[in-house]
Amino acid sequence: MLIRRKKGWEIPEREATPESVFLNRRDLLAAGGFGLAGFALPRGALAAEDADPSAGLYPAKRNDRYTVDRPITPEEINAHYNNFYEYSTDKELADAAQALKTRPWTIAFGGMVEAPRTVGIDDLLKAMKLEERVYRHRCVEAWSMTVPWTGFPLADLVAYAKPLSGAKYIRMETFMNPEMAPGQNQPFYPWPYVEGLTMAEATNELAFMVTGVYGKPLLKQMGAPIRLHTPWKYGFKSVKSIVKIDFVEEQPLNFWQQLQSSEYGFWANVNPEVPHPRWSQASETVLGSNERVPTQLFNGYAPFVADLYKGLQDQPLYM
Ligand code: MTE
């Protein structure tokens, strides 16, 4: 529990809570407690959909190349179990995240590019071909979900941004607005949230820019209007609510690395054999079920990504 200061998502819930309490809570989720009257729709879902001018773009056609061996996690569960420290360190942050204003929203491309440019989210959506992909989503806290994201390959966004050939990394940044996101008033954290990938990772076919989920625009608590999802990496790599994308030569220092570099690194590839310094990564709790299943190398995506790491075995690839 000690990260020299406690931070909710870093501690598997089973460690922070007696297991009986944890399991009961999950039993409730699995039994459909969230599906009953008052919770028939995830809070915030309607508001997000109504206000979003891109609603007509969803649902997009599913790309069946990316199959999973697990059922999709019910939206009611996913929508109330999130990590978005800008709004709360609790998982139930859906209400708080409704303060996120997703229009107008621009994304600025800079650094090593042919020409810096800024694009509005709705213009970007018009320029990209949307598809749905069902991906496993594995948090470093040892829980997982299966999520029907909608979006477009990050490789398409890279092509759109026209980076120079010398660019080695892509660096993505979340908005910074403490009035809109009260968590950003906590000076302990190195705001804004930043993440990065190598250019080879960014252009791997799995790397996905997410703008929708469950067949509609992305919910605010999940990082609307645009976030990353890299399914072979721990969830903290999947930066939410992006406003700035730079192409750089130096490896970006991410949010969690800045906070605790002994526990969180740049690569963060899922590996059941490399424990977090304070807990095992050998298995994971599948949210919405009572199952604890073995974790797979690269979260089951090794055929797509293992080659990216050839020759890099001396790097801390799994933290
Ligand atoms: N992005 C921002 N801006 N702020 C955050 O707190 N949390 C990360 C990641 N992206 C986070 C973020 C972590 S720890 C995880 S596990 C995933 O988002 C959670 O995504 P989800 O809430 O959609 O499951």
Short description:
The protein contains ten helices and twelve strands.
Describe this structure in words.
The protein is an alpha+beta fold and 319 residues long. The protein has one domain: Sulfite Oxidase, Chain A, domain 2. Helix content is 18%, strand content 20%. It has 10 helices and 12 strands. Strands 3, 4, 7, 8, 9, 11 and 12 form a 7-stranded mixed β-sheet that branches. Strands 2-1-10-5-6 form a 5-stranded mixed β-sheet. Strand 7 and strand 8 form a beta hairpin. It is globular, with a radius of gyration of 19 Å. The protein starts with 12 loop residues before the first helix and ends in a 14-residue tail after the last helix. About 12% of the residues have low confidence. Ligand MTE binds next to loops.
Q: What is the strand content? A: 15-25%
Whole-number mean pLDDT: 88
Give the helices and strands as they follow along the chain: HHHHHEEHEEHEEHEEEEHEEH
| Class computed from helices, strands and strand pairing | alpha+beta
- Sheet of most strands: 7 strands, mixed
Shape: globular
CATH topology: Sulfite Oxidase, Chain A, domain 2
> What is the CATH architecture term?
Alpha-Beta Complex
Distance between the termini: 18 Å
Tally of DSSP β-strands: 12
By CATH, the superfamily comes out as: Oxidoreductase, molybdopterin-binding domain
Q: Could you tell me the radius of gyration in angstroms?
A: 19 Å
CATH class: Alpha Beta
> What's the number of domains?
1
What is the count of DSSP helices, taking H or I runs of 4+ residues? 10
Helix share bin: 10-25%
Bound molecules: ligand MTE
